[in-house]
């Protein structure tokens, strides 16, 4: 595996400087300083520009059914690696501790749900038309499970000092399915923003480096989440990486 696709692996340095800097004008257009606006360190604040949160957009009964199904499945260990042979490779990684659930007979309903969100919510809230998306995955984070900070489409080239797009993804999608866990918050590193997910919540955000994020460790219980990534371009030859 080349260095370029190992973006989730342990690298404790965080690329900087981030633009805008704390004292520069915020990227949301409100003309406040970034540190006082979308980069604020205040707790319980609104999501930063670009992060779309819809609480309880998916019905509790649908979430419950999926979790009930998922709890009965034998999961696959996911590392941060490429899909070399059409299946998620069983490589473990220090950057990630999570499990993928085969959707089987749930595939169609999950696909339809994700497609509807990409078509209806993303097009109206994010100013991008999704042309295709990665088939959704249902992830299980057990107690101790986490995903180290990473970006979903870009990799930092430390030699050149630039971010390079490695995956054909523009929008990242997360649908949270349950409440009976502790920890497991979604944290956006550059924005100092932490989201505590609840059952049925949807989170969308641009897949690029500005929205570097991590799934914090689940301290108790098991967290279930559906993930996918949409692209505004027709399918290209860019390699898919698990995110
Ligand atoms: Zn702002």
Structure explained in plain terms:
There is one protein chain. This protein is an alpha+beta fold and 243 residues long. The chain has two domains: 26 residues, no CATH class; 182 residues, q2cbj1_9rhob like domain (Jelly Rolls, Sandwich). Helix content is 13%, strand content 28%. The structure holds zinc ion. Zinc ion binds next to loops.
Topology at a glance:
Layout: E1 52-54, H1 60-71, E2 76-78, E3 96-101, H2 107-125, E4 132-133, E5 137-141, E6 146-150, E7 154-157, E8 162-165, E9 171-176, E10 181-183, E11 186-188, E12 193-195, E13 202-206, E14 213-215, E15 218-221, E16 223-231
Antiparallel strand pairs: 1-13, 2-3, 3-5, 3-6, 4-16, 5-16, 6-14, 7-8, 9-13, 9-16, 10-15, 11-12, 11-14
Bound molecules: zinc ion (ZN).
Q: Report the end-to-end length measured between terminal Cα atoms.
A: 15 Å
Task: Name the ligand types.
Answer: zinc ion
Number of domains: 2
What is the average per-residue confidence, as pLDDT, rounded to a whole number? 86
CATH class of the largest domain: Mainly Beta
**Radius of gyration over all CA atoms, rounded:** 17 Å
Would you report the number of β strands?
16
Relative strand content:
25-35%
Give the class from helix and strand content and strand pairing.
Answer: alpha+beta
Largest sheet entry: 12 strands, antiparallel
Count of separate DSSP helical elements: 2
Shape: globular
H/E series, N to C?
Answer: EHEEHEEEEEEEEEEEEE
- Contiguous low-pLDDT stretches (5 residues minimum) are 1-10, 81-91
CATH architectural category of the largest domain: Sandwich
CATH topology of the largest domain: Jelly Rolls
């Amino acid at each position: 595996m080349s260095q370029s696709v190992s973006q989730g692996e342990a690298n404790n340095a965080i690329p900087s400087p981030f633009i805008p800097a704390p004292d520069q004008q915020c990227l949301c257009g409100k003309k406040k300083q970034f540190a006082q606006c979308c980069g604020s360190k205040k707790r319980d604040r609104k999501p930063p520009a670009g992060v779309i949160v819809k609480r309880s957009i998916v019905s509790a009964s649908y979430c419950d059914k999926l979790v009930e199904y998922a709890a009965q499945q034998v999961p696959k260990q996911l590392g941060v690696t490429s899909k070399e042979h059409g299946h998620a490779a069983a490589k473990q990684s220090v950057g990630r501790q999570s499990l993928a659930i085969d959707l089987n007979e749930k595939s169609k309903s999950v696909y339809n749900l994700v497609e509807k969100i990409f078509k209806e919510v993303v097009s109206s809230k994010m100013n991008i038309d999704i042309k295709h998306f990665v088939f959704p995955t249902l992830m299980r984070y057990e107690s101790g499970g986490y995903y180290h900070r990473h970006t979903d489409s870009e990799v930092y080239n430390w030699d050149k000092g630039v971010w390079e797009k490695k995956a054909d993804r523009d929008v990242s999608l997360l649908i949270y399915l349950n409440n009976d866990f502790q920890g497991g918050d979604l944290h956006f590193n550059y924005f100092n923003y932490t989201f505590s997910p609840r059952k049925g919540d949807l989170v969308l955000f641009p897949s690029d480096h500005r929205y570097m994020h991590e799934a914090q460790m689940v301290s108790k219980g098991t967290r279930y989440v559906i993930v996918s990534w949409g692209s505004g371009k027709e399918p290209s030859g860019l390699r898919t990486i698990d995110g």
